[in-house]
Model the fold of this input.
Amino acid sequence: MSGLPGTSPPWPTARSAWECQAFLTLTPCPGCAGPGLRPREIATLTGDAGKRWEYHAICARCGRSETFTFALAAEPAPAYPEFGGATPSQLLDAGQFLVLAEVVADTVAADPYEIDLPGPDAVGTIAQELARARDDIGVAVAAAAECLKFVPAGATAVPRSALWSPAGLARFDADPEAFERRHLLSTLGAFREVQWEYSRVGGEA
Ligand SMILES: [Zn+2]
Done:
């Protein structure tokens, strides 16, 4: 995909609603370049060109409204926080997924026991914090796994040509080595280890 998906075909294929949500969150507003487009209305359309979702989104900063159309993937959407099946994303590139994984993982304490009790009045807060951290590290794991889908079979790295977003390209150019398969596997492994630590702490997410 290059540029933003408009309302006329060809539409990029969305593998899940969660992937569309992440796309809106990570796509700068075409008007003010601010972050945080928010879906206001989602319509499911059918036609000769197949089933598609039409997202009407609004910019939290300048109020501009944008419409994005996504074709629906043939395979059923995976359970959250997975973004999609084995096929690489057409909405977000490997760089955007890596940044997402890193930023979200950065908010999670590596050791669940490091989560501080904010105060005696904060009943239930620890459970909420643990649930939030579990959710976040799950997103980081899923996003890091998405990067690996961009490594072509038999290749050792995501090629720069596989990226298209300014943010993704900036992340690539800052540190191309991070996109080597072995680096991506080690990043994913580190996040999975944190996820495992959280799975050992009592209570369910
Ligand atoms: Zn805006």
